[in-house]
Amino acid sequence: MTQPLAAPTDTIDLAAEYREAGVADVLDRLDAELVGLAPVKRRVREIAALLLVDRVRERLGLASTPPSLHMCFTGNPGTGKTTLALRMAEILQRLGYVRKGHVVAVTRDDLVGQFIGHTAPKTKDVLKRAMGGVLFVDEAYYLFRPENEKDYGQEAIEILLQVMENQRDDLVVILAGYADRMDRFFESNPGMKSRIAHHVEFPDYSNAELAQIAERMLADWNYRFDAAGRAAFDDYLHHRRAKPHFANARSVRNALDRMRLRQALRLFDGATPVAADDLQILTAADVRASRHFHPTPPTLVGQAPPEADIDAYDPDRIPERSDY
Question: Which residues form the AAA+ ATPase domain (predicted)?
């Protein structure tokens, strides 16, 4: 039933609506969780404002087309896309645009089957779990493989398109990945592009922001750098981000995990009593033991690479080991 049109003198306190919906709490947590990313946070505030105003317009009986909520997050790995998807789901739930506010994160393997008749059940099962919340499809461009005529990714795309259109009041889909690859994906799938209303671009972190992220992570784990260790970590970032497979905050976490291992071995090999302070401090030695400070010597033809370059024989670990 259509609500009566509001009188011209009717007013609503948008600030009060904003507070009561709890959106401010979500945005404050987003600020605390993600360092920097000012353009991303501004875009989220814009989307939240649009949804809040749309809800108020509906309450006042003002004609309005329900907003399209499907989104695309683009950027390099480790820039906070998954974290933002979680917070966006909370905002949507608090404003009444989804029922549950949960996030189901998937990749191609969760949607596409290996044989005829396998893809549809897999995709529909994922969609069933995501209903009432957000479906986050990471590296969505891998769904489309035109070079393989026997690939079943297109079937998954067609099912997604149908649900994104027919059940958009009960499901929000967020596609994520590298910007250039997502552009090519949309060029090949214009139906998908037309259903995406909001595009959010995630910039890479600066070295100063990555250092701040590292200090936050260490504080959460009850660790810290000493002065020399902090300076060494700045050097590490300079060396690391110039190398392949750099993944922003993800690379920082991998590197810190490795530094903690080196610290533990250093203390163990010291064979002397340690104080609580010793257990918390990462030194320059823990940082500079990284292979990024030690050029790999060339190997002879047919000779296996040293341990630091074993990635060539263990390709699945290349991105992770590149941070060591």
Answer: 67-206
